[in-house]
């Protein structure tokens, strides 16, 4: 007779699926960064030759950085890579540490929702005014702002879903599951 392996709880599977989606997003963001670096290097090389400049690399790199940063927040959350000070939490029993994890996720969810709300206001005004960058490229600002806004919305969605997952686990008193989803990555790694 083979021993049965306990099934992974649904909230942990949901968090794992979010992590996989965020890893794919991180790859796309990484490719965008590499392309931006290539553009900047091309700009540098062209400035040293008689060809001159293609222009706009500084503007484009700023837009890419803003977009990559906001989309990267959700990746960092699912990878438990955000900076945290867990001096007290590390000394608590698992149930106490779980309360801190729930509080942290609730805080991130609230902040992400609030910033998303105000980011929409910025984007809506840009769309209403048909705003363009005051640069030679005259970029329609709704393009980079849409990517930036979507990153904040994605962080809000991911953080709320992870919060729901840890709350479902808290009801079942599954402190280990909460630690897998929201605990300190250094603590869970045994360091």
Mean pLDDT level: 89
Uncertain parts = 187-191
Question: Which H/E pattern describes the elements?
Answer: HHHHHH
Molecular shape: elongated
Structural classification: mainly alpha
Overall number of structural domains: 1
Q: Based on DSSP secondary structure assignment, what is the total number of beta strands? A: 0
Most strands sheet: none
From the alpha-carbon coordinates, what is the Rg to the nearest angstrom?
Answer: 21 Å
- Estimate what percentage of residues fall within beta strands: under 5%
Helix content: over 70%
What is the end-to-end distance? Answer: 37 Å
* Individual helix count: 6
Q: What is the quaternary state of this protein?
A: single chain
Short description:
With 191 residues, the protein is mainly α. The protein has helices at 10-47, 57-78, 94-129, 142-171, 175-182, 185-188. It has one domain (10-184).
Topology:
Elements: H1 10-47, H2 57-78, H3 94-129, H4 142-171, H5 175-182, H6 185-188
């Amino acid at each position: 007779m083979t021993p049965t392996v306990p099934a992974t709880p649904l909230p942990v599977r949901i968090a794992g699926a979010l992590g996989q989606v965020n890893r794919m997003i991180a790859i796309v963001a990484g490719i965008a960064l590499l392309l931006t670096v290539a553009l900047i290097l091309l700009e540098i090389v062209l400035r040293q030759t008689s060809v001159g400049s293609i222009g706009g690399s500084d503007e484009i790199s700023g837009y890419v950085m803003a977009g990559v940063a906001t989309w990267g927040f959700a990746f960092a959350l699912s990878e438990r890579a955000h900076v945290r000070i867990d001096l007290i939490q590390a000394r608590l029993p698992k149930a106490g540490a779980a309360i801190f994890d729930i509080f942290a996720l609730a805080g991130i969810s609230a902040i992400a929702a609030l910033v998303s709300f105000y980011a929409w206001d910025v984007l809506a005004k840009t769309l209403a005014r048909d705003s363009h960058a005051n640069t030679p490229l005259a970029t329609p600002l709704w393009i980079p702002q849409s990517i930036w806004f979507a990153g904040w919305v994605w962080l809000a969605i991911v953080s709320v879903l992870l919060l729901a997952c840890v709350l479902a686990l808290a009801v079942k008193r599954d402190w280990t599951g909460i630690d897998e989803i929201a605990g300190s990555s250094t603590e869970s790694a045994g360091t």
